[in-house]
Amino acid sequence: MRIILADDHPLYRSGMKQMLAELYPDATIDEAGDAGTLNSQVLAQPEPDLIISDLLFPGFDYIRDLKRLRQTFSLCPIIAVSMMNDPLEVEHIMALGVNGYVSKSVPSEQMLEAVEKVMQGNIEVRLSDECLSPEMQGLVKPALDELTPRQIEILKLLRHGLSNKEIARELDLSPFTVRSHVSALMKNLGVSNRAAASAIAATYGLN
């Protein structure tokens, strides 16, 4: 297993590397402190099995470069880490194609749990309690309350990365019916893509 860890803070990289080494003792963990080094690591073989990347470090444009990483490694799990606290901003980050977002202020056990969940195929968002202001919670929770029981079922399956066809098989529905439910679901949540819907589901603990 090969992991790329990109962050410009040596102490944070050191702590993360130690935690990852305990979680995956046989893994090779390559570090990058700037975009140039990250680009070199991306080109190296074997291809990475996991990429964990900060959003703000020298030479790295996360909007451009997270998209590029996703295009280069269509199947490799990518986790973004940052001190950004705004759930709406996190929604935009998830829409870039990453598999997870973890606030740097969450406890280490939550960080490791999120990594494990992503490696199992889930979409994970972990924000610290202080990230969710009452005002922001008020924007999101009423939308969840407006969902039908069927839409809640579908939202949970979206969080686990299932396609419309897979959801249709799971719930014994036609793909057309699932597509209609997903469209209505995203409209009710006020998002435009599945990753953003999954981010909201993860933020509010839907499993």
Structure description:
- With 207 residues, this protein is of the alpha/beta class.
- It contains 10 helices and 6 strands, in the order E-H-E-H-E-H-E-H-E-H-E-H-H-H-H-H.
- It has a 6-stranded parallel sheet with strand order 2-1-3-4-5-6, sandwiched between helices.
- The protein is elongated.
- The model is unreliable at 131-142 (pLDDT under 50).
Please count the beta strands (DSSP E, at least 2 residues each): 6
Structural class: alpha/beta
Provide the CATH top-level class of the largest domain.
Answer: Alpha Beta
How many helices in DSSP terms?
10
Chart the SSEs and their pairings:
Blueprint: E1 2-6, H1 10-23, E2 28-32, H2 35-43, E3 50-54, H3 62-72, E4 78-82, H4 87-94, E5 100-103, H5 108-119, E6 124-126, H6 134-145, H7 149-159, H8 164-171, H9 175-189, H10 194-203
Parallel strand pairs: 1-2, 1-3, 3-4, 4-5, 5-6
What keyword list fits this structure?
alpha/beta, Rossmann fold, Arc Repressor Mutant, subunit A, six-stranded parallel sheet, 10 helices, 6 strands, 13% strand
Provide a short characterization of the protein structure.
By secondary structure, this protein is an alpha/beta fold. Helix content is 53%, strand content 13%. Strands 2-1-3-4-5-6 form a 6-stranded parallel sheet, sandwiched between helices.
